């Protein structure tokens, strides 16, 4: 099975780094745990890009195990484009907004 390339938008990267920083401030090492679980989610997307829940035309969502975060993404050709890494306590349409 071919693996898809996982590409993050600048916004997705910024949100992921902000989450990492927040968790690391709460407890040293917790940010690293978040990062590892995020990498597992990205790895799953590279192997099974259509496994996430379809939320609207061309957009899917998958959850980050153990942490209340979701990855919003689209699949184009053989690439997964991560649009946002977002805390699930936010409004469901928040992922659509630009910073």
Quick recap:
This protein has 99 residues and is of the alpha+beta class. The protein has helices at residues 10-26, 30-47, and strands at residues 5-8, 53-56, 59-63, 69-76, 79-87. It has one domain (5-80): 2-Layer Sandwich (YaeB-like fold).
Which helices and strands appear, and what pairs or packs with what?
Layout: E1 5-8, H1 10-26, H2 30-47, E2 53-56, E3 59-63, E4 69-76, E5 79-87
Parallel strand pairs: 1-5
Antiparallel strand pairs: 2-3, 3-4, 4-5
Please name the defining characteristics of this protein.
99 residues, 5-stranded mixed sheet, 2 helices, 35% helix, globular
Account of the protein in words:
It is a single chain. α1 packs antiparallel against α2. It is built from two helices and five strands, in the order βααββββ. β3 and β4 form a beta hairpin. Strands 1-5-4-3-2 form a five-stranded mixed β-sheet. With 99 residues, it is of the alpha+beta class. The protein has a single domain, classed as YaeB-like fold (2-Layer Sandwich), CATH 3.30.2310.
Quickly count the helices. Answer: 2
Number of domains: 1
Outline? globular
In CATH terms, what is the architecture?
2-Layer Sandwich
The tally of strands reads 5
What is the residue-averaged pLDDT? Answer: 93
- Strand order of the biggest β-sheet: 1-5-4-3-2
Largest sheet: 5 strands, mixed
The amount of beta strand, in percent, is 25-35%
Taking Cα atoms only, what radius of gyration do you get, to the nearest Å? 13 Å
N-to-C terminal Cα separation, in Å? 36 Å
């Amino acid at each position: 099975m071919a693996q898809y390339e996982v590409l993050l938008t600048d916004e997705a990267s910024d949100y992921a780094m902000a989450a990492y920083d927040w968790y690391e401030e709460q407890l040293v090492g917790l940010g690293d745990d978040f990062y590892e679980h995020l990498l597992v989610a990205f790895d799953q997307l590279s192997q099974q890009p259509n496994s996430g829940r379809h939320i609207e035309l061309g957009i899917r969502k998958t959850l980050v195990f153990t942490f209340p975060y979701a990855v919003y993404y689209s699949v184009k050709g053989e690439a997964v484009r991560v649009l946002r890494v977002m805390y699930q306590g936010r409004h469901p349409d928040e992922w659509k907004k630009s910073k």
